Amino acid sequence: MTSFDPKRPDFAPYGFTCELWRPTPMPRPDRHNEIEINLLRSGLVTYLLGGRKVQVAAQRLSVFWAAIPHQILSFEDTTEYFVVTLPLAWFLQCKLPDQLVKPLLHGEVIAESIDTRAAADIELLSRWEQDFREPGESLRKAVLLELEARLLRLAVTTPSATSRRPRPGHRAVSHAGLSKVEQMACFIAQRYTQPLSVEEIGEVVGLHPNYAMNLFKKTFGITLVNYITQHRVSHAQRLLATTDAKIVDIALASGFTSTSRFNAAFDAECGCSPRAYRREHQLTD
Fold it and tell me: Which end of the chain has fewer CB within 10 Å, C or N?
């Protein structure tokens, strides 16, 4: 596993960033192999994350794995917000508690549940944003130490899977309010590990397959097939990082019909082979 040296000044190529973003609807789903932290001073941002609509509320430190296809659909009363990105390998090396790591790698958004931490978090991320713009090594090393400590505090307040309830910082939106395209994305997110055809997806939402394909591409800027592939590759990334399963078994468990198709799709999405990805990111005891 590659070590990310906090003394290196060129953090951005390795995924370490802390910036203020102005929210804007995303024309297509994005995915990048990093843990992403969002913190809104005010308002609300609605994501389509892994085929589910999720609303991230203001003043709640919220974390998700950005390798899951995600897209900002809308926002309310939010002029700018903090976005922090962390390399997955660094995040896994922190050996944080399972109640934080496992749900993140399964596509959940974890949000801070303690109201009184909002002001401190805004101050903390404001400082990180300034520190990342400063030259030198010491401040960046301090940021990494503070990042690890903050994530550990978040893990402590994150309930286990058996006791997890909807968190106050975000909520899933019911399928009743979804458009046809969003319904297709939800269906794919639920079924991508199984054989899927455009005909089946169109039938589920009551659309002709050709119309369904064109509508999806027009709305999300990505084909149905590529969207399915993104989900399958993200699933494989999680298994490669967290299990010792054979490559062929991971390919089949992720919805691919052969290792050759899996290898080609994985290289196209991640820029490396599944074996190389595992060497870089596998979580070890």
Answer: C
C-alpha distances (whole Å) from 65 to each of 91, 100, 234 are: 10, 11, 10
Name the amino acid, one letter, at 54: V
The residue from 123, 151, 172 where one domain ends is 172
Number of independent structural domains in the chain: 2
Residue whose pair of structure tokens reads 């508690």 in the numeric block = 97
pLDDT in tens, 8-31: 334 443 468 899 998 888 888 888
In tens, the pLDDT along 227-241 reads 999 999 999 998 998
Measured N-to-C along each axis, helices 274-281 and 259-270 cross at an angle, to the nearest 10 degrees, of: 60
Q: How far apart are CA 20 and CA 281, in angstroms?
A: 28
Domain that holds residue 103: 12-172
CB within 8 A of 163, min separation 6: which ones?
Answer: none
Beta pairing partners, 11 = none
Q: For tokens 């960033």, what's the residue?
A: 17
pTM for the model: 0.76
Q: Residue 155: which H helix or E strand, with range?
A: helix 138-156
96 and 152 in contact (C-beta within 8 Å)?
A: yes
